[in-house]
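Exercise 4. Each item below gives a protein and its sequence. For each, produce the structure-token representation.

Item: CRAL-TRIO domain-containing protein (Photinus pyralis).
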Amino acid sequence: MAVRNLSAALQEIAERELFETPEKLNDGLVYIRDWLQKQPHLNARTDDQFLTTFLRGCKFSLHRTQEKLDYYYTSKTILTELYSNRDPYDPEIQELLKAGVILPLPNTLTESTPRIILLHLTGMNPDKVSFLQFQKLQLMIYEILLQEDDRIVTAGVDIWTELKNTNHGYATQITPTSLKKFNSVLHRGYPIRMKSVYCTNCPPIAESLFNLMKSILNEKIRNRMGVFSGSDEFYKKLPKKLHPIDFGGENGKLSELQEFWKGKVESYRDWFLEDTQYGTKEELRVGIPKTSATLFGVEGTFRKLAVD
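Answer:
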């Protein structure tokens, strides 16, 4: 399978910031595919496009690529609460898709700036859908973006969480352990360049959780995180024209984005069902088998996560 050509702007980023060259890409694909075939515990996708996202996400460090791929597939095996039953037609996932709670926005500031992903939690109801299902869908959409959007591994992503009128009942479902597991998987397992994390209209209880999340990340990403109560201050970080039309911007209408992403996730049903075959067989791992404890540490301890 051929690797998609990057746009000129993204190719420049790949070469300047990720140290990509045709030789590194070709040699890296050969090396990583050969390495995967020699790992008795790993059953992984090996197509060129998939492996290229990991090489780029690790700036072509072969060792980091090996670590990230292993973490990605080990997490899929161990964290059944996030990776089992990823059928888009599952009733809880359908509830979230209809509410439009996770919406990658279509426009970016320039050809070389990050993709904006809006987490619009207003429509979520804790009596119908658990926060765990929201995390599951978030990872599902990241996987679709890894398949289709080269921007998220080159220019990166800005995550914008909008919490106006959000049901506070979710606060009781979020624990330090669940936050740690999700952030560990996202930052250590997915080849996504996290550029900024914003929270707007954040109630005090959510701000406490936001600060807890900051405590497990390294200084580099902590400096890219911010809570905003006023529009003018936030516009300096994310210009108004990049906001959805419903928020006074020019970046898509929420109802249309919801309909688009509902259809997009549903179109990946076969992919998600087929993806269940990939993962690890820990009994075949050379060395000590991985468990939830070895992967995420004991409850109550936090290792700072490195983010590009």
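Check: Residues 131-148 form the longest helix (18 residues).
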